[in-house]
Amino acid sequence: MARHLEIAVIDDDESFRVALVESLSSLGYGSSGYASAEDYVRLIGSNAVNCVVSDIHMPGMSGLDLMKHLAAQGTTTPVVLITARSDANLEAKAAVAGAVCLLRKPFEINELIGCIEGAVKD
Amino acid sequence: MALREQDLVLSSLPPSRTQQQLALSVALLIVLMALLISITGMQQVKLAVIDALVPLFGMAMFVSDSITAVLLFTQFSIVRSRALLVISSGFVWTALVVIPWLLSFPGVFAPHGLLGGSSSEITVWLYTLWHAGFPIFVIAFALLKDAQPAKRLRQLPAATAILSCIVGSAAVIAGATYVLVVFQAHLPSFMIDAMNFSVLWYYTAAIIALLSALAISLLWIRRKSLLDLWLMVVMLVFLTEVLISSFPVSARFSLGWYAGRTCSLLSGSLILIVLLYEITIVYARLIGAVRAQSRERGARLITGDAVAATIAHEIKQPLSTIITRAETGLRWLDRASPEIDKAKEQFAEIVANGRRAGAVMDGIRGNFKKDPRIRTWLDVNVLIEETLTLVHGDLQQHRILVRTEPHAGLPQIMGDRIQLQQVLLNLITNAIEAMAGKQGLRVLGVRSEVGKEGNVVVSVADTGKGIQSQEIDQIFNPLFTTKPDGMGMGLSICRSIVESHDGSLLVFPNSPEGAVFQMVLHASTTTALASV
């Protein structure tokens, strides 16, 4: 592990969120979970993270809404989107929104790490 | 939109309020005009003799009454009511009797007419046949219209019935004309001279008026449909015609006589206009129904896709957790000094999420077993017929011949109508797709029969490319598909539905080519249940 990164995990599915946070921790990353995009926006405050991993489809603010919100605030934190849906046009939507990657569940942790490390270059 | 048969059959269509008001206004307008002409004494005013008007009028009557007859005969061929046959014949009668009437009219084809020799008596006799004949047909219609269609008439081909009516009417008119021509010297006289009528005519006109009045009252008493309503108006116009052209004085080419001819034209075309209008409306309604049906079908197929997508989503959630946990567990174990306890935590979570995936599956299965109350008794043959209607467009588009062999004595089964229809729709759609890309004969065979132990067996057979023997074993697997854009859920969902009905779904090769899907539904056990 070359460097320490803080990663926020946003997913309304608790079991997956906890699993992902524990997985990232076991790899030596600093990781915190949020049950909704609203929670993330409210709690994160000035403690900026290095990367956000967010589910797309959530009740309330979606992953894409969150990206718009962050962009409006001028935040440049890279975002990796994840989804369990099979809709074909999600890649395009994610790319337009400026997401680093779109990963379809189930994915391997190495794919996610590749995306995160690629996004946080410096 | 549910379209009932009686909404499509004009002879049984009830008149709407607007139509009743319109009919009443037309009737009132005509009676008022006639009264005005009568009371002011204008009826007797002599107008110019326009000889060309008579053949024009005759041709118009012939054409409009013939078309009306054709339209009414078409209605008869649908509902086979004796009353409709009678009223159609009435219009055939008025159309055909115009021919000798025109031939005999003085000054049309010859100065004294072609048939009448030196007198124009025959013209009046033919006019009497025409105008006394039609009310009699209407009276017969009114008396017959509530009767149940006779069994004999149902078995008789419609064309035979229609043809015999036309031939019969033509024969009677030809015979009567012949008799009139031969015996014209011995006939009582209707005319005083070429223009004015004798007393006999006034009695005859009174009889025609009475017949029309009788027809109106019979129609009024037994009125029900749109056709009844407008026939009443027609008879009223008929009555007005006879009165206005005969009373107080009857003379050719008087204002009254011209008014009478106008009424005649009106009565001839009224039913025609109403029929054409109503046919267009019914046609529009049919198009609406067909569109609604295809929309309904589209909605059902989309639902299938949506259900499959939801299932996929629900399964992927615990699956993703399991994979991530397993990877983490492996990593804890993979260290120089393995962290056994942390790995154990991960495995415990894997077990919990495996259980969660199982619960999702049970939930889906539970959906198929839901509320037994929506199960109803249903006739599989009706279900087959309805499903084929849904795919009618596809079948035509791909030029597929449909052979249905419904078993007449099929016992009813207890089942979920929508689900079973989805199965049939799926099997038939698959069959269509299997045949669509193939040359040669395309036959879809759908048959129902009573199998062993009184089971209801439905077979859907196609002459498509068939199923490879190595594919037969996996064809019901959820992920198996031979279609480039298919997801393979169709047949596996079909099998789940049939199995939730305690039935079975089988497949075997069709001979000489294609495949047969067979749905076996247990009728005997459910029948026993119902009798408890």
Automatic annotation (TrEMBL), chain A:
A single GO BP: phosphorelay signal transduction system
4-aspartylphosphate carried by residues: D55
Pfam families: Response_reg
Keyword Cell cycle in annotation: no
Keyword presence, Phosphoprotein: yes
Record-linked InterPro entries: Bact_response_regulator, CheY-like_superfamily, Sig_transdc_resp-reg_receiver
Keyword entries, A-Z: Phosphoprotein
Response regulatory domain: residues covered: 6-120
The protein's name: Response regulator
Organism: Bradyrhizobium niftali
From TrEMBL, chain B:
The keyword Transit peptide appears for this protein: no
Annotated ranges, domain Histidine kinase: 310-525
Catalytically driven reaction(s): ATP + protein L-histidine = ADP + protein N-phospho-L-histidine
Keywords recorded for this protein, A-Z: ATP-binding, Kinase, Membrane, Nucleotide-binding, Phosphoprotein, Transferase, Transmembrane, Transmembrane helix, Two-component regulatory system
Enzyme class: transferase
GO molecular function: ATP binding; phosphorelay sensor kinase activity
Keyword Thylakoid on entry: no
CDD domains linked: HisKA (cd00082)
Residue ranges crossing the lipid bilayer per the database entry: 21-40, 52-72, 84-104, 124-144, 156-180, 200-221, 228-249, 269-290
EC number: 2.7.13.3
Residues in the signal sequence: none
PANTHER family: PEROXIDE STRESS-ACTIVATED HISTIDINE KINASE MAK3, SENSOR HISTIDINE KINASE
Protein name stated in the entry: histidine kinase
Taxonomic source organism: Bradyrhizobium niftali
